[in-house]
Amino acid sequence: MDLLSIMAVKSSRPSKVVFLFLVLFLFAVLSGCIGEDSKVKAAAEAVPVKVIKISEQVFQVRGEYVAQVQAMKTVEIRARVQGHLKERLFEEGQVVEKGQLLFIIDRRPYEEVLKRAEAELASSRATLSKAEKDYIRFKALFDQGAVSREEYDSKITDKRVYEANVSNAKAEVEQANLDLGFTKIYSPMKGLIGRTQVNLGSLIAKESTVLVTVSSIDPVYVNFSIPEKEYLFAVKEIEARKKKGMAEKHTQLQIILADGQLYNYNGTLNMADRAVDSSTGTLGLRAEFPNPDKMLRDGQYAKVVALLKVYDHALVVPSRAVLDVQGRKSLLTVAANGTVVEKAVQIDYSSDHNTVIGKGLSAGDLVIADGVNRIRPGILVDPEIVEPVKPVSSVPEQ
C-alpha cells in the first residue's frame, strides 16, 4: 500500500465519526421540537375557564316580603247625638291625648230637654208625696173600719202608679244628662288624629257620620305573608336551635322603607294566622315594631326582611354553577392535573343567587361557575381563579 492509500484510509475514519455526530445532533434537535410542539398543542387544547375557590363562610338566609303597616288601634269618632257641629278643638294631623275634648255640638236643644225632664221629675215627686200621705191616712182609717177595702186599695194603687212615674221621670233626666254630655266629644285614646270629615255648622247625624279618625302610633303592627316553604324552613331552624340550646338569631325583623333605606328599629314576630291561605300558599304573619319617631303610618307599605337561618360554616356556590339532571344535583370542579371532574352534591339551601352545599364539596375545591353547560367532565381546562360572589342580602348596607 503506497503512502497516498494509507493517508486516504486514515482520513476516512474521522469523517464517519463527524457524520455520526451530526446525525445524532439533528435527531436530538428534532425530538426537542416535536416535544415542544406537543406541549404547545396540549396547551392550545386546554379550555380557559373561570373558577371559584371554595372556602367556609358565615351565610345568612334572609327572606324579603311585601308588608303593610297597621295601627294597633284605630277608632272612628262618631256623634252619639244629632245636632249642628259648633266647635272643633284640635289641630288636624297632630297627636291627641286620651280624654281630650275634640268637638262640641250645639248644646241648647239638649239643655232645654234636660230642663223639661227635671220639671217633670219634680211634678212626679210632688204627686207621689201626696199619694204617700193619702195612703198613710187611709191605712189608719181602714184599720179603724172607717173606710172600705176598695177605697184603701185605690190609694195603694195610686201610690204605686206615682212611684213608677217618678222612676220614669228620673230615667228621662238621666237620659237628658247623657245626651247633653254627648254634645261634647272626647278622644277615647292617645293617638294621631286625622282630617276632619265634616265642616263646622253641619248637621251631624247620630252614629252614622264619621267626624274624624284616631290611630295609635307607638308601637305599630306590620302585616306580611310568607310562602309555606319558607315558613317550614324557619320553623325547622327554630326547633333545631332550641334543641341545641342556642339563641334564636332570627327572631328580629327589619323593615326596608319605600325609599330603600333600612328602618332604625327592629321588630319581633307578634302572631301567625290560624291557617295557610290555600289560594296563595302563604301564611299571614304579624310583627310589632316600635315607632317613637312616628315615621310609620297606618296603611303605609314597606318590605319586611326576616333572618330565617344562619349557616356558621357554609360552602356557598353561585346557583348558576349547579347542574340539575333529573333531580340529581352536581358541580363541575377542576382537579390538580387540570381536568374537569363532576361531583354529585347535596343542597341544604338554594335561592336565585346562592346555593349552600351540604355534602359532596370541600373547602379548597375549584368550582366552575360560568358556562357549565358547555363544559364536559374529563376535558382539560386552564382555570382562572376569580373572587367568589358575595352572598346576596336583602338588607341595604348602612
> Can you write the helix and strand succession as a string?
HEEEEEEHHEEEEEHEEEEEEEEEEE
With strands numbered from the N-terminus, the spatial order across the biggest sheet is: 2-11-14-13-12-15
Output the CATH homologous superfamily of the largest domain.
Answer: Efflux pump adaptor protein, beta barrel domain
The fold-level CATH name of the largest domain is: Elongation Factor Tu (Ef-tu), domain 3
> Which bin fits the share of residues in helices?
25-40%
**What's the average pLDDT?**
82
Assembly state of the chains shown: single chain
In the CATH hierarchy, what is the architecture of the largest domain at level 2? Beta Barrel
Radius of gyration: 48 Å
Beta strand count: 22
Helix count equals 4
Determine and state the CATH class of the largest domain: Mainly Beta
Structurally, the number of domains stands at 4
| Low-pLDDT residue spans | 1-14, 33-43, 393-398
Q: Main beta sheet: strand number and arrangement? A: 6 strands, antiparallel, barrel
Overall form: elongated
C-alpha termini separation: 107 Å
Strand content: 25-35%
Structural class by helix and strand composition = alpha+beta
Write a structural description.
There is one protein chain. The chain is an alpha+beta fold and 398 residues long. It is 33% helix and 34% strand. It is elongated and about 140 Å long. The N and C termini lie far apart (107 Å). Helix 2 packs antiparallel against helix 3. The strands form five sheets. It has a six-stranded antiparallel β-barrel with strand order 2-11-14-13-12-15. The N terminus and C terminus are likely disordered. It has four domains: 89 residues, conserved putative lor/sdh protein from methanococcus maripaludis s2 fold (Beta Barrel), CATH 2.40.420; 101 residues, Beta Barrel (Elongation Factor Tu (Ef-tu), domain 3), CATH 2.40.30; 63 residues, OB fold (Dihydrolipoamide Acetyltransferase, E2P) (Beta Barrel); 76 residues, Helix Hairpins.
